[in-house]
Amino acid sequence: MKIKKVDLDIVVGVTSKMPTTNMPEFAFAGKSNVGKSSLINALVNRKALARTSGKPGKTQTINFYNVNDSLYIVDLPGYGYANANNEVKAKWGKMVEKYLRNSTNLKAVCLLVDIRHAPNSNDIQMYDWIVSNGFKPVIIATKLDKLKKNQVPKCIKAIKETLNLGKEDIFIPFSSETKAGRDELWQLIEEML
Ligand code: GDP
């Protein structure tokens, strides 16, 4: 996709009403620090559109980035950071769940996991949420450049086994540094538009 323009159009907070949108939406979820902001920036060729996290978990908003007036990239707040208290976690859960339940334009939810680590219970819960809300999950394994080539198959296997992925589940190794996986992800998004 040729990126002509990108704007942060809508920011949804815990107390906000969910917006009614009129373009297809592609949401991105993952634990804090997984590389979500970097991936979004890489997707839209911007250096600092989405905030890369100095302070993990600070953003408790759902951000809708309008790309070319043809789709929204929806940045869900990162989960699972160590210092969140239960109240914050509960609010996060309610907000994200409300979004997944109510969005009528959501085409796919991309779940980001760090390629170097097996998914944890939060990732598994997010995966189950995606599936139980009827969305096709797209698993994106981030920070591919951090592995040596010969380590990649073993790490991919561990992620697939932990999430219990089937053959038909979409799995994309990605690197914001080298842009590996970027074209594949855009192709997938364009097919779903
Ligand atoms: P977020 O909290 O999920 O939005 O994560 P960020 O995008 O802020 O990334 C967290 C840290 O990982 C930052 O220091 C990034 O520079 C780094 N990072 C993110 N993606 C990659 C990647 O693909 N390769 C490498 N080497 N580092 C990455």
UniProtKB/TrEMBL annotation:
Co-factor(s): Mg(2+)
Gene Ontology CC: one annotated term: cytosol
Any one GO MF annotation of this record: GTP binding
InterPro entries attached to this UniProt entry: G_ENGB_dom, GTP-bd, GTP-bd_ribosome_bio_YsxC, P-loop_NTPase
Domain EngB-type G: 22-193
Gene3D superfamilies linked to this entry: P-loop containing nucleotide triphosphate hydrolases
GO biological process: division septum assembly
Keyword annotations: Cell cycle, Cell division, GTP-binding, Magnesium, Metal-binding, Nucleotide-binding, Septation
Domain of life from the UniProt record: Bacteria
One family name in Pfam for this protein: MMR_HSR1
Residues annotated as transmembrane: none
Protein function: Necessary for normal cell division and for the maintenance of normal septation.
Similarity section: Belongs to the TRAFAC class TrmE-Era-EngA-EngB-Septin-like GTPase superfamily. EngB GTPase family.
PANTHER family reported for this sequence: ENGB-TYPE G DOMAIN-CONTAINING PROTEIN, MSS1/TRME-RELATED GTP-BINDING PROTEIN
NCBIfam families with a match to the protein in the record: GTPase_YsxC
Full protein name: Probable GTP-binding protein EngB
